[in-house]
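Structure in, sequence out. Go:
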């Protein structure tokens, strides 16, 4: 019996971003700066949450995991993209390509699930403030994060194992800056119906369910806010979930604009733009959103800076 899980392709060629050669240097500096900002900004969030006891709450526990996921998500694709921008031969080994695809799915799914978990946390904080500490116990918080990581690992593994059974024949050119699952399926000369079924099934569980949870949480939060009579109470409720809502709108707004609404651009161009948004722009903006819009984070940063100045003197 013929086995289809043996690929004749030993490497793939990544075409990268559609940038003119004379603009490569400018875009290299731009993406390098954005990546360093992403890493340093999210590391600062993790450090503040770790060192400041005022931030040892469920909301910031979830935020620290989101920051770690953002660093990892960008690190899977951006360094390789930067290397290829200065390389003559933009290749990636078959095993490296599959590994990169696995971690892209893993961290992307984790990011999505954590946003859903954080929406539930905000719902409990606003709609059931007197029972918040009782509901959001440490054991529940750890369980929610663990389920997010485990489900994401299982999701990425299901895509990876189903991809491993496919054969890749003559064409090994990927019109992307990283090993995207959809682009790899287009290159395969095997039957990909099972892969597409897995994408539909796992995608429904990993995207629709968290998005539904987010929508339900904010509908109930909105109803709770409308029942508050004082302006002060309304602003307090809005400040509690403002940062998370901004990140949710940025994350899912990109999906809606680039994938749901029609565009005159070709689909490959939209895929690349969407990928840049996911892997570079959104992880970079998250620290600014949570720092500039969050009084607790600004307070923790101020206390850390004052402590460093005191020790230096």
């Amino acid at each position: 019996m013929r086995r289809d899980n043996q690929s004749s392709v030993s490497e793939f060629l990544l075409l990268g971003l559609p940038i003119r050669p004379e603009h490569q240097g400018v875009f290299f500096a731009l993406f390098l700066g954005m990546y360093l900002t992403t890493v340093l900004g999210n590391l600062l969030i993790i450090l503040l949450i770790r060192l400041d006891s005022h931030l040892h709450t469920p909301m910031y526990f979830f935020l620290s995991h989101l920051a770690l996921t953002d660093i990892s998500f960008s690190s899977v694709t951006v360094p390789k993209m930067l290397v290829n921008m200065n390389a003559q031969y933009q290749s990636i080994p078959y095993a490296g390509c599959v590994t990169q695809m696995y971690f892209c799915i893993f961290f992307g799914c984790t990011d999505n699930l954590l946003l859903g978990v954080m929406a539930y946390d905000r719902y409990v904080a606003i709609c059931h403030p007197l029972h918040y500490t009782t509901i959001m116990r440490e054991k529940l918080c750890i369980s929610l994060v663990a389920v997010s990581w485990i489900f994401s690992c299982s999701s990425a593994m299901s895509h990876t194992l189903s991809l491993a059974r496919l054969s890749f024949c003559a064409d090994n050119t990927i019109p992307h800056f990283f090993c995207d699952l959809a682009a790899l399926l287009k290159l395969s000369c095997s039957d990909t119906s099972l892969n597409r079924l897995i994408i539909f099934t796992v995608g429904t569980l990993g995207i629709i369910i968290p998005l539904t949870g987010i929508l339900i949480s904010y509908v109930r939060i909105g109803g709770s806010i409308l029942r508050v009579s004082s302006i002060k109470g309304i602003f307090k409720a809005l400040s509690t979930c403002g940062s998370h809502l901004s990140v949710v709108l940025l994350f899912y707004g990109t999906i809606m604009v680039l994938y749901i609404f029609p565009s005159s651009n070709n689909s490959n161009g939209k895929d690349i733009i969407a990928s840049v948004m996911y892997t570079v722009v959104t992880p970079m903006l998250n620290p600014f959103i949570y720092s500039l819009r969050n009084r607790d984070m600004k307070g923790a940063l101020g206390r850390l800076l004052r402590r460093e100045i005191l020790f230096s003197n």
